[in-house]
Amino acid sequence: MTAGPHVTEAAGVTTRGEAAAPADTRAGYDVDAGIAALWQQFADSPDQASRDRLVLHYAPLVKYVAGRVGTGLPTHVDVGDLVQSGIFGLVDAIEKFDPERGLRFETYAMQRIRGAILDDLRSQDWVPRAVRSKAKEAERAMERLGARLHRTPTDAELAAELGIGLDDLRDFYGQLQLTSVVALEDLVAAGKDSGSLVDTLPDDDAVDPVAVLVDQDNRRQLAQAIAQLTERDKIVVSLYYFESLTLAEIGKVLGVTESRVSQLHTRAVMRLRAKLVEQTGS
């Protein structure tokens, strides 16, 4: 009795003239077998560990659907947010998928993922769905009229095409303003080579550099003027303006009466003012 062909799978070698299966084909079989086993495991025991493994396996579907949905959306919509919403749709698809219905999981999951992303977008939309629907209807009517008339239709023509009155159309325009959102950054940069919104917004807490320079110059002049006072006048000015002592407290420090301190203070201020005027005029 002649023995049949023997295949050594580990080495990928076939004897007695039978060709070896390509490595990528065998790898595909292994992946299919592995995911089928994982589905069976999840069906037998739908625990979180097996579900998470299924989510990781089918995660590229979420990125693909999010990229398709994100095409044409405003630039402020982050694709990462769409992916996050789509993950919830994928988890829901895994938990509700019924293989007995004969539908490929990928087809079913893409529908659930897309639905989850659209539901999340609608929940964030401040414009009523009826207004969105009317806006699309108006756009289609404009396209039909433009193709038929070979020009931009008037408001009266558009109203007639939509089957509404001219006043209703103008009220509708007011509602449509809600759907027209332009990034403030784009408005600021319009007609300019470059520019940033940050550069146009005033910072009330920012320090004015001119005021800083003026303050530094005033302090320098004041220090020079104080340096020219007598020693007692310097003490009075320092204790009164920098240490916030009262005239009575300064009198106790100097051992003189409060009225004498008042005289010293007045004299010091007058001398300072004279020195500052002299410095300014020089």
Automatic annotation (TrEMBL):
Keyword Metal-binding appears in the UniProt entry: no
Gene3D superfamilies: 1.10.1740.10, 1.20.140.160
InterPro entries: RNA_pol_sigma-70_dom, RNA_pol_sigma70, RNA_pol_sigma70_r2, RNA_pol_sigma70_r3, RNA_pol_sigma70_r4, RNA_pol_sigma_FliA_WhiG, RNA_pol_sigma_r2, RNA_pol_sigma_r3/r4-like
Cited Pfam families: Sigma70_r2, Sigma70_r3, Sigma70_r4
Coiled coil ranges: none
Residue stretches making up the RNA polymerase sigma-70 domain: 81-94, 246-272
Region of interest (Disordered), ranges: 1-21
GO MF term (any one): sigma factor activity
Superkingdom, natural source: Bacteria
Keywords, sorted A to Z: DNA-binding, Sigma factor, Transcription, Transcription regulation
GO terms of biological process kind: DNA-templated transcription initiation
NCBIfam families on file: FliA_WhiG (TIGR02479), PRK06986.1 (NF005413), sigma70-ECF (TIGR02937)
Family: Belongs to the sigma-70 factor family.
Entry function: Sigma factors are initiation factors that promote the attachment of RNA polymerase to specific initiation sites and are then released.
Protein name: RNA polymerase sigma factor
Native species: Amycolatopsis eburnea
